Amino acid sequence: MLKTVVVVGIPGVGKSTVLSIAVKILVEKGYTVKLVNFGDYMLSYLKKLGETDARDQIRRLRLATQLVAQEAAAKAIRRDLEALSGDRSVGIVDTHAVIRTSLGYWPGLPLAVLGELRPSVIVVIEASPEEVLERQRRDVSRYRKDLMSIEFVEELLQINRYYAIASSVISGAALRFIRNSEGLAERAAEELVKVVEEI
Ligand code: ATP
Ligand code: AMP
Ligand code: MG
């Protein structure tokens, strides 16, 4: 049976960094891994609609537009994950439990999305507010200025946990917290690999 892991965490916490290391380790161990970034799928859909071509603009679009893109992304990811099969195959989705939109907090993993992704486990990547803020500042490849204050980051870390718990309850997926400490992304990746091995 296909193993699916959904990985969440606030912007700049290090999800994509940890996942790229975890994928290398899993491949070395003989796994077939499909790593998908939910935002990539939303962006390609929104580009076709002519809505935006910038990933950090997505959360500032009208919520109705984000909603159709979210649904389209979840369905497209499901189709891509269907291509995988067998015990040594794992689908990993790099995404968000909650998005801070202009209107308010909005779920990244509502029932409709979870129904498509069908995760066995939801992994929450975490770090201290100071670490996240510093990573956001250092990473000039991304626009996260709308989130870059210690108050926002502290609040978002907390809200993210509540949303992840809600998604675990409505989907029946296990919930795991992994700390991505400064300079120790490899350690977080190794912990994630153990989670995959335990499914
Ligand atoms: P987003 O949700 O916005 O895509 P993300 O969670 O995927 O964010 P990354 O892009 O992986 O975050 O990481 C943000 C920045 O933090 C990058 O510059 C990355 O190199 C750095 N980083 C990630 N993990 C660590 C770590 N353990 N120690 C130091 N820097 C890190
Ligand atoms: P990322 O590269 O992970 O930051 O993803 C880019 C953007 O895609 C995020 O900032 C969100 O606006 C959007 N996004 C990612 N995952 C989801 C999701 N599950 N639901 C809604 N929007 C999402
Ligand atoms: Mg990322």
Give the count of structural domains: 1
Report, as a whole number of angstroms, the end-to-end distance. 10 Å
CATH topology: Rossmann fold
Shape designation: globular
**How many helix segments?**
7
Average pLDDT confidence is: 96
Helicity range: 40-55%
- Parts with pLDDT < 50 across at least 5 consecutive residues: none
Class computed from helices, strands and strand pairing: alpha/beta
Number of strands: 7
Radius of gyration: 16 Å
Features:
single chain; 199 residues; alpha/beta; Rossmann fold; 5-stranded parallel sheet; two-stranded antiparallel ribbon; 50% helix; globular; binds adenosine-5'-triphosphate; binds adenosine monophosphate; binds magnesium ion
Structure description:
This protein is α/β, with parallel strands linked by helices and 199 residues long. The chain has a single domain, classed as Rossmann fold (3-Layer(aba) Sandwich). The protein contains 7 helices and 7 strands; from the N terminus they run βαβααβββαβααβα. The protein has helices at residues 15-28, 38-49, 63-82, 111-117, 129-138, 150-171, 185-198; strands at 3-8, 32-37, 89-94, 98-100, 105-107, 121-126, 174-179. A 5-stranded parallel beta sheet has the order 2-3-1-6-7, sandwiched between helices. A two-stranded antiparallel ribbon has the order 4-5. A hairpin with a 4-residue loop joins strand 4 and strand 5. Helix 3 runs parallel beside helix 4 (111-117) and helix 5 (129-138) packs across helix 6 (150-171). The longest helix is centred in the C-terminal third of the chain and has 22 residues, at 150-171. It is globular. It starts with a strand and ends with a helix. The model has no long low-confidence stretch (mean pLDDT 96). The structure holds adenosine-5'-triphosphate (ATP), adenosine monophosphate and magnesium ion. Adenosine-5'-triphosphate binds at residues 9, 11-17, 135, 138-139, 142, 180, 182-185.
